[in-house]
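Page 47, continued from p. 46.
Same chain as before, 142 aa.
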Amino acid sequence: MKVSVQANDFDLSLEVRELSKSGSVGAVASFVGVVRDVPMTLEHYPGMTENAIRKIVDEAAARWQVMDCTVIHRHGALQAGDQIVLVAVASTHRGDAFAACEFIMDYLKTQAPFWKKEHRPEGTQWVEARSSDDAAAERWTR
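Result:
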C-alpha cells in the first residue's frame, strides 16, 4: 500500500500500471481530483497526515478485498486544473475496487488533516468543511 503526501505531480498511468503488475488483479478503480477554477494552497501536518491516510486505507482493506492501493495527495501551491489527489485500488473484482476507492476518497475529505486556502481575486480565504462531505462519509457507518 502506497501513501504519499507530496508537492510534485503524479502520473496516473504509471501508478495504475504499478498496481496492475500482479497476475491476480482483475480490476483497478481510480479517482483523480483536480483543482477547480481557483488557485489554492494546501497545508498539512507531515507524519500525522500520512498516518491518518494509512488508517483510512487499512479500514478499506478490512472491509473489501483490496490487493493493493495507492493514495497520493499533493500539498503546496496548486493552480486551476492541477491534479490534487489520486486514489487507486486494485482488487480481484471491480465491485470491491470501486467501493474501496469511493470509501477512501470520502474519508480523505473528512478525516485527513489538510487545510485549503483559496486565492480569489477578492482575496484569500480558508475553505470551510462541507456538510455534503460529512454526509458522504457518514453513509459508510450505516
